[in-house]
Amino acid sequence: MAAPEKYPPEAEMPLIGHLIELRSRLLRVVIGVGIVFLAMVPFANALYTAVAQPLMQRLPQGATMISTEVVGAFMVPLKFTFVLSFFFAVPWVLYQIWGFVAPGLYRSERRLILPLLASSTLLFYAGMAFAYFIVMPMVFTFMVGTTPDGVAMMTDIGSYLSFVMLLFFAFGLAFEVPVATILLVWAGLVTPEGLRSKRSYIIVGCFVIAAVITPPDALSQIMLAMPMWLLFEVGLLISRIYVRKEPEEEEPAQDKGAG
Hints:
Blueprint: H1 15-40, H2 44-56, H3 72-88, H4 90-101, H5 107-145, H6 157-174, H7 177-186, H8 192-197, H9 199-213, H10 218-242, H11 246-249
Helix pairs in contact: 1-3, 1-4, 2-3, 4-5, 5-6, 7-10, 9-10
């Protein structure tokens, strides 16, 4: 990620200056997401068809998805395209957030936060990919296979999109567990030893969180809880190595904003 434009920061900025900077950053975020959205609009139907493949490939022969609303067939693909454009624009959004907050950070804090921002973006994309390629095929195979005789599974495209978005967000956020673990240890709120001693409670917590934020089926809950636990172990391991070095590299207060 490139350095922010106003970096190093000004020594003192009045409140109105921060508000103007915030408005400028938010405007850039809106423009960036808007440009990506407009570029993807011509492919809205093709994008929805692609995201519907995990279900379409497992429906019985001759079965299709349906639209129960008059404007659903037009609006649902557009809605999915807008959400997808925001996902694709996340690096640009994070760059603007970084440009706003970086001037207020110490050099050691910037060295920690910058790689965490980059890794959190990649982990969120990894969580979505895991949901699309691994979880959704297994969940839909199970759902179609358990449909009672005499019942035709005809899923509304709007309901399907809500289900898929919930899975994407749930798995995207769940894959941020290593970043959250490192930040908690770095902030001094917990220690690696303390987290290790509470491992059994954390495993139970993973299953409870998975039960809350996933659709009401046991398979997706288990497939979310297990990666969360494994990613917690990864975050715990990295925090022991990564955060331990920070106190030795801390600069004095007068170095704030240097760099």
